[in-house]
Amino acid sequence: MHNLAVYAEEALTIPVGRTKVELSAGLRMENIFVSGTEYKNVNSLSPRLNAKWTLSDVVSIRGGWGVSEKLPSFYILYPVQQYHDIQTFSFSHGESASYVYYTQPYKTLYNENLVWQKNYNSEFAVDLDFEMVSLSITAFYNKTKAPYTYRTLYSPFSYNIMSIPSDFTVPSNPEISVDSQSGIVYMRGDGQEFWTPMATKVTDKSFFASKLPSNGADIHRGGVEVIADFPEISLINTKFRFDASYSYTQYVDTTLTQFYRTGWSHTSLPNRSYQYVGIYAGTDGNSIFNGKQKHSLNANLTSITHIPQARIIITCRLEMSLFERFRNLSTYKGREYAYNVSAEGTASTGGSIYDGNSYTAIRPVQYMDENGAVHDFTDVEAADPQFANLILKSGNAYTFAQDGYGAYFSANLSVTKEIGDSVSLSFFANNFTNSRMSVTSLANGVSAVFTPAFYYGLTCRIKF
Amino acid sequence: MKRRIFNIVPVFTLLLLCGCLSFDGANPYAKSTHTLSVKPQYPDEFPSELKGKTTLKISNRNQDISYTCAADENGCFNMDLPSGSYRLSLSYRYDGKTLGGMTDKVIIGSEDVSAGLALNISLSGEIVFKEIYSGGCTKYPEKGNYQFDAYVIVHNNTDEVQYLDSLCFAASDPYRSIATNVWEDERDYIPAIQAVWQIGGDGRTFPLKPGEDAVIVVLGAIDHKAKYPESVNLNNSSYFVCYNNSFFDNPKYHPAPGDQIRQDHILNVVIKVGEASAYAISIQSPALFIFKTPKGLTIQDYILQEGTVIQKPGSAKDRIVKVPNKWVLDGVEVFEKNGNNKKRLSSEIDASAVVFSGPFQGHSLFRKTDESASEMMGFEVLQDTNNSSEDMYEREKQSLNE
Known about the structure:
The structure holds two protein chains of two kinds.
Chain A: E1 2-16, E2 19-33, E3 43-54, E4 59-70, H1 74-77, E5 82-93, E6 96-106, E7 117-130, E8 133-145, E9 148-163, E10 175-178, E11 185-188, E12 196-197, E13 199-215, E14 219-229, E15 238-252, E16 256-259, E17 277-281, E18 291-307, E19 312-329, E20 331-332, E21 335-336, E22 339-341, E23 359-362, E24 366-368, E25 374-376, H2 379-382, E26 392-393, E27 403-405, E28 408-419, E29 423-430, E30 438-440, E31 447-449, E32 455-462
Antiparallel strand pairs in A: 1-2, 2-3, 3-4, 4-7, 5-6, 7-8, 8-14, 9-13, 10-11, 11-12, 14-15, 15-18, 16-17, 17-24, 18-19, 19-27, 19-28, 20-21, 22-23, 23-26, 24-25, 28-29, 29-32, 30-31
Chain B: H1 2-23, E1 33-41, E2 55-60, E3 66-70, E4 77-82, E5 84-94, E6 97-108, E7 113-118, E8 120-123, E9 127-133, E10 137-138, E11 145-146, E12 151-156, E13 162-163, E14 168-172, E15 189-198, E16 207-208, E17 213-217, E18 240-241, E19 268-272, E20 287-291, H2 299-302, E21 309-311, E22 319-324, E23 328-336, E24 354-356, E25 364-367, H3 371-377, H4 388-391, E26 392-395
Parallel strand pairs in B: 1-7, 17-18, 23-24
Antiparallel strand pairs in B: 1-4, 2-3, 2-5, 5-6, 6-8, 9-12, 9-25, 10-11, 12-17, 13-16, 14-15, 14-20, 15-19, 15-22, 20-23, 21-22, 25-26
C-alpha cells in the first residue's frame, strides 16, 4: 500500500476602497494506491477557503469553509481473516478428553455502498479592536457526514452437535474422523474396526455474525465562541483574557440494525439456540436510544503577569463549566421510537419518554427467522412470549430524562522562570484551591466530582 | 524532674481509686451494653400459645460469639448486648412445620435498639441438599487454587421413594450474597440466574430410595483428584452432570464428562438467560435451590408463559426466570464470613443462612444428621428445619474426597 498526498494553497489580498479583503484557498488531494482490496478509487479531495475583510482598524469580519475527507482505515481496506469456533462434540478416553469444533472463517465484509466520511466546517466571525481591547465573536457549524461505523449482519446457519450413542463404548485409544460437510463424527478403536457414527444430539440453527463497515447518521455540531483580550494593567504588569464557548451537538441514527443475543436458548426446543434476530432502528441492542443531544457552556478567565526584570511569567487560569445538559433520543419515522412501560412489563403505558420518569422499551421494527426471512414486528409478535426476548427494555426509569450538571470551577497556576538563554523552570499547581465541587445529575440524582484533586509539579526545559 | 514525678503519682493514684469506687455496687457492664428488643411478625396461622416457646439466636457477625434468648409470653425478645453487628435468626419446629426468619446486620451502638423480624412457616422438603461444594481447593502439590470441581448432593429425606425425574436445579441472583441485590427481601419467587437445569427421565426413571443420596456434578465430571489430591473424583456412573456444550462450551469449566458418566445422567438446560460460556456458581456464597413444577405443568410450558422470564431491574441485558417459592423443595442460602450479606432466598425457603469461611480450602457445606429420627426410621434422616444456620455446617473436607 502506498499513500500519496498533494497540497496546494494560495493567498491573495484585494484592496477594496479603504478596506482590504484577504483570501486564502487550499486543496488537499490524497490517494491510496492499494492492491488486493475490493474498494475502488481510494482517494479524497479536501478543499478549504478562508476570507477576511478588514473594514477598519476597529472592525474586521472573516469566514471560513472547508471539507476534509477521511479515507477508510487499513482494517476496512484489508480485512483480517478471523475464525469462530463452535464446540460440536466432546468425549473422554482414559484420562484425556478430546473436542471437535466447527470452525467458521470470516472477514469484515465488503460494503459497495460505503462512502468516505466527510467533515464540513464553516465559521463566521467578527473581530473588534477598540480601547486596547480585542474582542472576537465566532459562530461555527460542523457536520460529520456519513461517519464510519461498523454494523453487524447475521446470517442463519445450522450445525450438528454430536453425542456418544448410548450403546457405544469409547475405545481406550480412539481414532476419530469428521465429515467436513455434514459435521458427523465417526469413531473407531483401531485401523481394523469399522467407523461408528456418533449420534446427532441436535441440529442447532443459529445466526452467524459478520461485521460490515458502514456509514452512520450525520453528526451536527454548532456553537459560538467569544474571546476578549484586555490591555495590560501596567501597575501590576498583568493582562487578562476571557473566553467562553457555547456548543450544541446532536445526532439521531435510524439505520436498521440487526441484533442477536448469542448464548440464549430457544424458547421451546431443547438444546437449540434462540430463534430470532431483532432488527432495530439505529441501536445495536446494547442501548435503547438511537441519538443524543448535548448543550454546554464553558468559560475561562486567564491572567498573565510578566515580570521582565525577574524574567518570570505567572499565569493564573480559572476554568468554569457553567452549564451542561444532555439527553438520549429515540426517534424513528418522525415519532418517538421507544415507549414507556412499567417496571414489571413491556406493554406501553403511554406518555412521552422525555418525561423521564418511566422505564422504557423498544420493539424491533422487523425480525429475521431461522431461514433468513425478514418479517415486520407487529402487535401480534409483541404479545407472543417467544418474541419477548426481542423487546429491549431500559435498565432504569431515567434513560430519556433531561440530564446534566450545574456549574463547577477549578483554578490553575503556572509560574515560569527563565534562567539564562537556554533554561526555563516552570512550576504548575492545578486546581490549587482544591475545589472539589460536587455536582448532581439531573436525571438520576447521583453526585459526582469532575475536578481533579490538587496536584503540582515542576518542569525544566533546556534548549540546545 | 523527680519532684514532678512525685507530684503526678499521687494524683493518678487518687483518680484510680475514684474510678474503682464508682463501680461499687453497680453492674460493671452497665455502660457497655444496650438492650436489643425484637418484636417478630408471627404469621396469623402460627398458634399464639406457642409464641412464648420460641428462642432467638443472636450471632455477632464479626466474632464467633452467639447468644440465645427465650421469648416472653408475647413472643418478643429482650437482651442486653455489647456493641456490635448482629445477625438474628429464629427457627421453631412444630407439627411437622417450621417457623423461621432471619435479619442481618442489626447494629448496636451507643443506645438501645428495636428490631423487627419477619417470620414464615414452611414445610420440610422431600428432597434436600445434603452437601454443597463450590468453594474449590488448592492445587497442592502444585501452587495455586482450583475451582473447576463443584458438586451438590441431594438426599431423599422421606420414608418413600422419591423420583429425581424432572427435578430442576438453579442458582438465585445475585451470584454472591454481598453483591448488589436488586430484589425485594420477601418475594413469592426466586430469580433464577443464567440457566435452569433439569434431570431427564419419564417420571419413574431415577428413583431415590429413602435416605439415599444423588450427586449432581455442577462443574467438571472428571477425576480431578488424580491431578489435585485435595479435589474430588467426579467421574462416577451414578452421578448426574450439568453439561451442555451447546450453551456452555468452556472446556475449563465444562470438560468432556468422564468415561463413567451415563448419557442419561446429563442434565438438560431448560432455558439459558445469560450469555456466559460457563455455568459458574459462586465459590464464596451461592444460593442454590432445587424445585419441581406442580403436576400438569412442565417447566418448559411455564417459561413460555408471559411474565415468567423477566428483565433484571437495573440491567438492560440480564434476565431471570421467576421460580415460585412454593415449587422449591430445598434451598440453601450461603453467607460470606464478615461480609455485608443480604438474603436472596425468602425465609419460607431458608430462614437464615449458613456462613462459609472462604474458598480454596476444600471445605464444603454439609447437612447435619437427625440422629434420633434416623434411629427411629431406620435410614439416614437429615435435619431439615429450613434454617441452614442450624441444619448445615462447614465441613473440613468434601465428603467425596474421602
